[in-house]
């Protein structure tokens, strides 16, 4: 289980700092720092750093195996995030769906794609014991 005195850190490539800031702020993330070569965000309580690296963009991203995101433990928060993404017209890589229907690990999920083709998954497990 997560301890509150720790922050997960993820570094990913971006192709343009301005469009990256625009996307993540529309997602609700707080810009923490900005430098000439990277931006750092409070990503739902964790740290995501987008490094300017236009030559390292995945031109044909796939959902698996490479993505990151949030697993909500509260269904209402998941639904609010989905509604917010739709309201802000954020780009969906995959529309909302249910995975593993009828199994213990059944969950609701959707994927967004950021301006550098990084994939973000947002999900909610009906059985919270499956979150880890």
From TrEMBL:
It comes from Radiobacillus deserti. Residues 6-125 form the VOC domain. It comes from the Bacteria. This is Glyoxalase.
